[in-house]
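Forwarding the complex inputs:
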Amino acid sequence: MLTNSPRGTNDILPNSVGDWNYVEGEIRNLCRRFGYQEIRTPIFEHTELFQRGIGEGTDVVDKEMYTFNDRGGRSITLRPENTASAMRAYLQNKLYADSNLVKLFYIGSMFRYDRPQAGRLREFHQFGVEAVGEANPAVDAEVILLAINLLEGLGLKDLELCLNSVGCPKCRGQYRTMLQDFFRDKLDELCEDCQSRFERSPLRILDCKADSDKPYMADAPKITDCLCDECRDHFEGVKKLLTKAGVKYTLDHRLVRGLDYYTRTAFEIKYAPLGAQSTVAGGGRYDGLIEEMGGNPTPSVGFATGIERLLLALEKQGLLPEKNNTTDAYIVALGENAQTEAFKIMMDLRKAGLSVGMDYAGRSMKAQMKQANKAGALCAVILGDDEIAEGVAMLRNMTDSEQNKVPVADLVKEINTVVGLAQLKKFATGTNAQASIEKLAESLKQ
RNA sequence: GCGGUCUUGGUGAAGUGGUUAACACACUGGAUUGUGGCUCCAGCAUGCAAGGGUUCGAUCCCCUUAGAUCGCCCCA
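Prediction (whole assembly, two chains):
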């Protein structure tokens, strides 16, 4: 027990934080270009926020929340998603005063008690975006394009954008009764799940994966045929802008999202190779949420993407950046005396901005050289009693194995030369560039 | 929450109801006294997820628990 993290949680270890930083960096850069600003909300909120926001009767609220009473007897819940929190923060801090369209993004841990699988964890990480205050279909399109730009910008291919409109409370209410009328006499033939969905959320019946139910779906009324004029115009507007932007989408009139607050636009982006957890991003419009929470009616759109799933997809396609950890210099010290001097020299070099390491175990020179190699050191600084007496160090270039005596006072400059050349070589492409760097290296040696 | 599969060292793994649990990688040390990357040699699981049971004897059989994984549900 003591040596195992709770089920469904993961450590992000040093060998993979690089991937996380990479993805988060791309996200931040993209959000800057789109004009979205970061918001960080608490990891936990009053339980009621989620009950009201996400909706009772949804799976997330009914069976997946981490809810507990704090020592003051308040019911607290670890956030299962971030939209409700962001809207709470928007209202509480009166962000609507800043602009009629407030564009926010977040990156952070979310918590849902569900059975873990690949791509599904109990603590997982989401990046999400919320555009608050504007009903224009352009905002829907912008949000969808942001999602697509992110995924494609990371290099992902073979994505599928599924699009639907779930209407507003007015037309959805009508559609709901139409659906119930349609399924009422077929109820006995539907699978058990669907029978229980019939009253609770008939729209979900459309989403049923049971083969036995599929024959009925074809004839079921489509929500897109039942939209009110405003909703239909809105949906047409979104589609027009997406087409204009060259985005391919598949209309899926059975796409129904599991959180109650969605209205009108609903979309998912899927990456099929992930299997059962193939949805890498999902979202839509939630025009009623802020009003539900006690604010003025404020139309909004957003989406969220699971970072773990994103990383899985990137890994599958080999799109994660290469890890090349290098150290500028590694100090090899021989003997106790030298080790003390070396420590001081290392600190000075670090102060000068270099990344420097050394061995503390008092190992043999050979072993220390191995360490230097393993650390990816560009140079080794070798210090024995003789060198110290002379005030010099042996500076060995680990890439070409050349070495010479250098006054300790010149170490920073000399190491920087080696490091600089190594970096130049890394970025140089083509034989010409390589050749001129070789020349440069030669001239520097003289 | 439901159903299926799986769980051997730091890692990838082979394997058997019976004295020493292959092999590879990694790691540590060594191969003429102060020089890495290649090669060679040596060391490295009293233990086969945990607990219980069957048995003269179990890592291999049975049960329970935990975790992983696949599918369902749901979602990111």
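The radius of gyration of chain A is 29 Å.
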